[in-house]
Amino acid sequence: MGGVNSPVRAFGAVGGAPVFFERARGARVWDADGNVYLDYVGSWGPMILGHAHPAVVKAAVRAVERGSSFGAPTAGETELARLAREAFPTAERVRFTSSGTEACLTALRLARACTGRPLIVKFAGAYHGHADGLLASAGSGALTFGRPTSAGVPPEIARLTLVLPYNNPEALAAAFAAHGKKIAAVIVEPVAGNMGVVGPRSDFLDALERLPRRHGSLLIVDEVMTGFRLSWGGAQRLLALRADLTCFGKIVGGGFPVGGLGGPRRLMDKLAPLGPVYQAGTLSGNPVAMAAGIATLTLLKRDPPYKPLRDAADHLAHGLRAVARRHRRVISINVVESMFTVFFCKGPVTDLRSAQRANVKAYARFFHALLRRGVYFPPSQFEAAFVSAAHTPGVIEQTLAAAEAAFRDL
Ligand code: PMP
Question: Are residues 310 and 298 in the same domain?
Fold first, then answer.
């Protein structure tokens, strides 16, 4: 099984043996051999407050002492849903799941049921979990019917997904011109994190707002990574983007397994038990996860860390660019608030195709050089790195010192 329960952890993209972690606190993680690392993965996004934040730990412990799961409703679910609605006003109703994958697959099912249409549009390089219809990627060309990215996805299912280049309003317009009456929804990472970090161009955002609505399709904004991270109201507030359906995950569960789907009542009421669209989960709305989520969102709301988070990411990016220049290395760093990627190529990186120009071997060497010096970056060129509220200026300086030595090694 590769020794892992999720593929990127196996270090396939960078080589070498994966590090087994034992504990974490703040910006640091310790491995099973006692080595300590400054962590820029943050469990792939959830740990915005830093690892093992005392308030989150306390809330989770209290909850587990009262019983870890009931399979019946609890007040915590309503409270977390209220917080999510406050942050995302279009999410009048919220359904919690146990993962972002479930949130996205539920969004697709609901969109198809609400529109009576079969096709979904997604963007190349975007990841929305591993539901069959979302594991489709484009061949070359601006507009292609999807091919399955994974074995076991029947081509008949992949063909229901149109895969378009990110940041390309013309391709979106062409897809709607050709298939508009059949498109149930467009699903988008409002700031892409899964081809490395790629921000949206404003004309792309305009097209996302305009085209689906004009053609009676829904806009599904996948905020699994960006929700509560780019701002309290996620990418939608930061970019003034209006979703029909919003997918949640990661931060909303405070480090526990949670996903969620939010939208207006007229759409969400189509979900069972009120409506005909089936969706369920034994551990959905789990009380321990709800408690950790409530503690996390409450802290983010009361004491917003977004300005210091942005400053930390900018400080790091600025420093890394200077280090790379000193060592005559061409890199391009995309930073959006507290998410960033160091691409080993000349910029700009604006979509999957430009991301794929990156020198993945150079990234792998950089990754291992950092790891040897106690800095844990994402073990793949095509992933987002994250700073947390525990990444103080001192942590960033320590990282830059490690990067200076790492670039010397390359
Ligand atoms: N959507 C996005 C944007 C994601 O980044 C991810 C996970 N990285 C998912 C969906 C899937 O979430 P999960 O891994 O919780 O199933």
Answer: no
Q: Are 334 and 328 in contact (CB under 8 A)?
A: no
Quick one: pLDDT at residue 144? 43
Where in the sequence is the domain holding 404, given as residue range(s)? 7-53+304-409
Helix (H) or strand (E) holding 355: helix 352-355
Residue to mutate, 224, 250, 286, ligand 1, most ligand atoms under 8 Å from C-beta: 224
| Among protein residues, the one whose CA lies closest to atom 5 of ligand 1 | 225
Question: Radius of gyration (Cα) for the chain, nearest Å?
Answer: 21
Helices (H), 240-336: 265-268, 287-302, 306-326
CA distance 387 to 316: 9
For residue 261, the domain's CATH number is 3.40.640.10
- Number of structural domains (the chain) is 2
376 is catalytic: no
- Answer yes or no: do 186 and 125 share one domain: yes
Give the nearest ligand 1 atom to 6 CA. Answer: 14
Q: Which two tokens stand for residue 105?
A: 């697959």
Each residue's pLDDT tens digit, 280-291: 999 999 999 999
3-state class (DSSP) for residue 410:
coil
Percent of the chain with pLDDT over 90: 91
One domain for residues 334 and 208? no
Would 143 be classed as within a structural domain? yes
Give the tens place of pLDDT for each residue, 91-137.
999 999 999 999 999 999 999 999 999 999 999 999 999 999 998 76
User: Is there a single domain that holds both residue 86 and residue 232?
Assistant: yes
Is 250 an active-site residue? yes
* Model pLDDT for residues 209-251, shown as the tens digit of each residue: 999 999 999 999 999 999 999 999 999 999 999 999 999 999 9
Q: Could you tell me if the CB of 194 is within 6 A of ligand 1? A: yes
**Active site (annotated) includes residue 58:** no
Give SS3 for 386.
Answer: strand
228 contact partners, CB below 8 Å, separation of at least 6: 48, 87, 234, 251, 252, 296, 297, 300
Tell me, yes or no, whether 2 lies in a domain.
no
User: How far apart are alpha carbons 272 and 254 in whole angstroms?
Assistant: 26
| Mean pLDDT of all residues in 344-358 | 96
Cα–Cα dist 145/305, whole Å: 42
pLDDT band, very low/low/confident/very high, at 145 (cuts 50, 70, 90): low
Assess if residue 211 is contained within a domain.
yes
Q: What is the mean pLDDT of residues 382-403?
A: 98
The answer, yes or no, to whether residue 90 has pLDDT greater than 50, is: yes
